Automatic annotation (TrEMBL):
SUPFAM superfamilies: Aminoacid dehydrogenase-like, N-terminal domain, NAD(P)-binding Rossmann-fold domains. GO terms for cellular component: cytosol. This is Bifunctional protein FolD. The lineage of its organism: Bacteria, Bacillati, Actinomycetota, Actinomycetes, Micrococcales. Its EC number is 1.5.1.5, 3.5.4.9. It catalyses: (6R)-5,10-methenyltetrahydrofolate + H2O = (6R)-10-formyltetrahydrofolate + H(+); (6R)-5,10-methylene-5,6,7,8-tetrahydrofolate + NADP(+) = (6R)-5,10-methenyltetrahydrofolate + NADPH. It comes from Glutamicibacter arilaitensis.
Length: 287
């Protein structure tokens, strides 16, 4: 048996069409929607991601504001740019591309952002609202990759009620927050968070109904490690010989019932959810 594909590319395209309609509606009512990006340094991977976000914006009618700064930018200079975007009325939401150079304290930068303009959903205020469960629909932005995972499953009519989800990885962009979304009453999954300190990973993998692999270790999830019929989301992004390589060995598709390809799975969904956060921010402003 071969797993069915959780097609992130096609799902993201459908979401973008819906967003384009909402952006057009806002425009007709006199509201512009604008996404800002701040990129520090010359990492080609980061530059490629930021370029993709501006392309996405153009596709759905969102204006974009691009701020590219040199590697040697100081923390104070970056803070000044953050405050500029906080004040700029043409900027509905923005992101600071991560990772930042080592001489900059990422937490200080994220805290300086206006939480209402936090398109990534990574401001401590918004992560705190997620913990406190005050994220009623549209109350505040949610982190893009976790949201992308949940939306990708929902749009393939996969019900997680009562399912056991194993999350691999404890990073702030996915591993930590995704369980908070999955355990809300409307999703109702049971979640285990595994990480490098986990001593019984094989046991946990063997019983998981759903695996969300976000460790960033190429092909750490092998076909023989997962349960027959498991649903597998491959979130890890590594580069091996210049090629995007996920956390899941492609052979796992012979055992899983559903699998998200990588590339073409959660990556495009993350981008679509970023746009979604900006459009929601614009809709909140318009109210
Ligand atoms: N402030 C901030 N917000 C982010 O959301 C953020 C970030 N920093 N830093 C880096 C990570 C990584 N990330 C990806 C987004 C889309 C794809 C994506 O669309 N990938 C395509 C193509 C992959 C390729 O060919 O390179 C795919 O999976 O099909 C991948 C990775 C967002 N990140």
């Amino acid at each position: 048996m071969s797993a069915r594909i959780l097609d992130g590319k096609a799902t993201a395209a459908a979401i973008k069409q819906e967003l384009a309609e909402r952006v057009a509606k806002l425009k007709a009512a006199g509201h512009t929607t604008g996404l800002g990006t701040i990129l520090v340094g010359n990492d080609p991977g980061s530059a490629w991601y930021v370029g993709g976000k501006h392309k996405d914006c153009a596709e759905v009618g969102i204006e974009s504001i691009r701020v590219d700064l040199p590697e040697e930018t100081t923390q104070d200079e970056l803070l000044a740019k953050v405050r500029e975007l906080n004040e700029n009325p043409d900027c509905t939401g923005y992101i600071v591309q991560l990772p930042l150079p080592k001489h900059i304290d990422t937490d200080v930068i994220l805290e300086a952002m206006d939480p209402a303009k936090d398109a990534d959903g990574l401001h401590p205020m918004n992560l705190g609202r997620l913990v406190a469960n005050v994220n009623r629909p549209m109350a505040s932005p949610l982190p893009c990759t976790p949201l992308g995972c949940v939306e990708l499953l929902a749009r393939h009519d996969i019900d997680l009620n009562g399912k056991h989800v194993l999350v691999l990885g404890r990073g702030v962009t996915i591993g930590r927050p995704v369980g908070l979304l999955l355990t809300r009453r409307d999703v109702n999954a049971t979640v285990t968070l595994a990480h490098t300190g986990t001593t019984n990973l094989p046991e946990l993998l063997a019983q998981a109904d759903v695996v969300i692999a976000a460790a960033g270790v190429p092909h750490i999830i092998k076909a023989d490690a997962i349960k027959e019929g498991a649903i597998v989301l491959d979130v890890g992004v590594s580069r091996v010989d210049g090629k995007v390589t996920g956390d899941v060995d492609p052979a796992a598709a012979e055992v899983a019932s559903w699998i998200s390809p990588n590339p073409g799975g959660v990556g495009p969904m993350t981008r679509a959810m970023l746009l979604n956060n900006v459009v929601e921010a614009a809709e909140r402003n318009a109210k």
